[in-house]
Write a structure and sequence with these properties.
Elements (H helix, E strand, L loop, with lengths): L3 E7 L3 H13 L3 E7 L2 H10 L6 E4 L8 H9 L10 E6 L4 H9 L3 E6 L4 H9 L3
Parallel strand pairs: 1-2, 1-3, 3-4, 4-5
Helix pairs in contact: 2-3
């Protein structure tokens, strides 16, 4: 299983972020994790290209900027800012319209319902092989 350099968690729920961090660490899936409870801050981080990010786990329903607004602006970033980043929509939404909408974005590689599990993480990591 490939170990990622950096995973970005974008979810306004601190408990979900902590849980996802635990799963990522237990699976030894990444060297670093950056956490944002605000999608706008996550977008600024990517635009400033602080460090290389391999995977973004993105929630839909968040205040200030939701997952849809984030992905629309993310897709407008210059190509060099988002090279080799896999975006996975990780959400509690059971709405099939959300899933269809997510898969219409070329940047979103997978739509997964919470909670993250070791099996789901293996599916995500398989996208890097």
């Amino acid at each position: 299983m490939k170990k990622l350099k950096r995973v970005m968690l974008v979810d306004d729920d601190p408990f979900t972020n902590k849980y996802n961090e635990i799963v990522l660490h237990q699976m030894d899936a990444t060297e670093n994790i950056v956490v944002f409870q605000n999608a706008k801050d996550a977008l600024h981080y990517l635009a400033d290209k602080k460090e290389e990010v391999n995977l973004i786990l993105l929630d839909i329903n968040m205040p200030i900027m939701n997952g849809w607004q984030f992905i629309e602006q993310y897709e407008n970033l210059e190509k060099g800012r988002k090279t080799a980043i896999v975006v996975v929509m990780l959400t509690s939404s059971m709405n099939s319209d959300d899933k269809n909408r997510a898969l219409d974005f070329k940047s979103i590689k997978k739509f997964i319902n919470k909670p993250m599990t070791a099996a789901l993480l293996k599916e995500i990591l398989a996208l890097f092989e």
